[in-house]
Amino acid sequence: MNSIPRSFFQRNTIVVAQELVGKLIVRQFPAGNCVVRIVETEGYLSNDPACHAANGKTLRNQSLFGPVGHAYVYLSYGLHYCLNIVARDDSVEAGGVLIRAVEPIMGIELMHFYRPNVVEHNLTNGPGKLTKALSINRTFDGYDLVQGIDLKIAEDSLSYSHVTNTSSRIGISKAVDQPWRFYSSGNRFVSRG
DNA sequence: CACCCGATTATCT
DNA sequence: GATAATCGGGTGT
Q1: For C8, which residue's CA is nearest its C1'?
Q2: Staple A9 to which of A69, A77, A151, A152, CB 3.0 to 4.6 Å?
Q3: What distance separates the 2 farthest-apart alpha carbons in chain A?
């Protein structure tokens, strides 16, 4: 399980969003570890009306302006946490990649414990679902995902053969035509939107 | 301080 | 397909 260098995230946000499809997220607990594969992402840039950083830095979105490779976690609709990875080049002041869906690889029982009473294909097929299954909340806002222990991003040591499709982003009302959503073609954990 | 509304999900018809 | 659940940031009084 190779780690990913911080320079990977110091690039155009949309390129990073596309290339994160297929990468792994590792969540370590005292009781055991969970490993999931990223199968759906969306890119958000500070000069993009749909981005939380579009109107400048606030207490809530300050992680999007912080160092790349760290997490931006926010509360959505007052109910669900969503996980982003801060990624941008020097041409913008903020940017991040929303993790919209993941495929469970290891520690599936533990994920079912955090998200009971669902069948496996509904375990992590949405941005609010995967954070609950991995027990990710606001305490991870600003967490370093490159050097972190409890939560980190890793390269897939197995070669995951896949095709990445592109579409417009889901669930937003501004900048709806930007083709900045990426998902693993045919993967059953991709959210239906 | 009141009001609006959102990068969602579960549950009902 | 429609809607409730639930909360905090942003805006305007």
Answers
A1: A78
A2: A69
A3: 45
